[in-house]
């Protein structure tokens, strides 16, 4: 349960935490966000998440609300006030509020900052990972700058809903050439029939996942053969394994793509190993 939310300098009760009616995040999705996992009371890979937050702001020329050190103090306080041991911190920065206008507001308009934290039932993702999940592929309807973590999530919301109706927890988006870009809220991976771990290279069609980076470190440390390149649906269907990565799910095995089983339809050995080893390589920081 979320009890207290930070909004623009104040710690508010959940039901009373509010932003301006003309906030640009609300009107234009003129905003970016980050999600950091909290595990055993510590932040996971926080430095990388804060660095991506700053990159997203810089790409959109939204002013930084404060230094990383100041933001970490707020994050720590929100985690403590909500008694989160295992869960997530969500933070959002918008270009601020003002009379609705496509033109950007004056440069000294203060950005809006919201930080909230939520306890999640520990072990939920672990249980899901025992079975693995299904994904559904569909053409990527999003814009050409998916490397920026904006709150413009409606295409992903609708695509995930379409997938969910067919029993798939995640969507895998296809670029115009038929290659898989990423998931609606995760990065996409396969282990080819030759045993090579493949994930798309960083380009503007995907978010540079923090979990993706850590998993690349794990894979290299384990001596796995890794290629960062596009892969298409038929290569994925012929793969030994498939999985996704994200801060809230770490490594989640995929056992079905478009209702077709991946290999024998059970979570693969490499995905399970990467999941097991993940936290040995992730960076923990105190709050
Ligand atoms: N791609 C998209 C579109 C996402 O929304 C996310 C989750 N934030 C990811 C990839 C995975 O990123 P991360 O590992 O940093 O959570």
Structure, described:
This protein has helices spanning 24-28, 46-60, 68-81, 124-131, 154-165, 210-221, 233-237, 269-281, and strands at 4-7, 10-13, 31-39, 42-44, 87-94, 112-119, 133-139, 170-174, 180-183, 187-191, 197-199, 226-228, 241-246, 250-257, 260-261, 284-285. The radius of gyration is 19 Å and the shape is globular. The chain folds into 2 domains: 4-122, D-amino Acid Aminotransferase, Chain A, domain 1; 125-282, D-amino Acid Aminotransferase, subunit A, domain 2 (D-amino Acid Aminotransferase, Chain A, domain 2), CATH 3.20.10. Strands 7, 8, 9, 10, 11, 12, 13, 14 and 15 form a 9-stranded mixed sheet that branches. It has a 7-stranded antiparallel sheet with strand order 2-1-6-5-3-4-16. It is an alpha+beta fold and 287 residues long. The longest helix is centred in the N-terminal third of the chain and has 15 residues, at 46-60. It is built from 8 helices and 16 strands. A hairpin with a 5-residue loop joins strand 10 and strand 11.
């Amino acid at each position: 349960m979320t009890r207290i939310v930070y909004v623009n300098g104040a710690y508010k009760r959940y039901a009373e935490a509010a932003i301006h009616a003309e906030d640009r995040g609300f009107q234009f999705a003129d905003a970016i966000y980050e999600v950091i996992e909290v595990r055993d009371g510590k932040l996971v890979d926080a430095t990388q998440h804060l660095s991506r937050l700053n990159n997203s702001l810089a790409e959109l020329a939204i002013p930084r609300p404060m230094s990383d050190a100041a933001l970490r103090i707020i994050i720590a306080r929100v985690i403590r006030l909500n008694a989160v041991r295992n869960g997530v911190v969500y933070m959002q920065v918008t270009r601020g509020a003002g009379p609705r206008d496509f033109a950007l507001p004056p440069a000294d308009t203060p950005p809006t900052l919201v930080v909230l934290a939520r306890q999640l039932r520990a072990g939920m993702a672990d249980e899901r990972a025992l079975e693995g999940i299904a994904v559904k592929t569909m053409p990527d309807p999003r814009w050409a700058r998916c490397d920026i973590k904006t709150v413009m999530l409606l295409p992903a919301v609708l695509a995930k809903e379409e997938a969910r109706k067919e029993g798939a927890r995640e969507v895998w988006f296809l670029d115009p050439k038929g290659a898989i870009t990423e998931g609606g809220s995760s990065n996409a991976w396969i282990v080819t029939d030759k045993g090579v771990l493949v994930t798309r290279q960083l380009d503007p069609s995907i978010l540079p996942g923090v979990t993706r980076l850590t998993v690349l470190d794990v894979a290299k440390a384990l001596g796995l053969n890794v290629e960062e390149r596009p892969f298409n649906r038929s290569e994925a269907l012929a793969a030994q394994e498939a999985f996704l990565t994200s801060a809230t799910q770490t490594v989640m095995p995929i056992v079905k793509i478009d209702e077709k089983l991946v290999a024998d339809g059970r979570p693969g050995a490499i995905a399970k190993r990467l999941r097991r080893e993940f936290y040995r390589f992730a960076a923990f920081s105190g709050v």
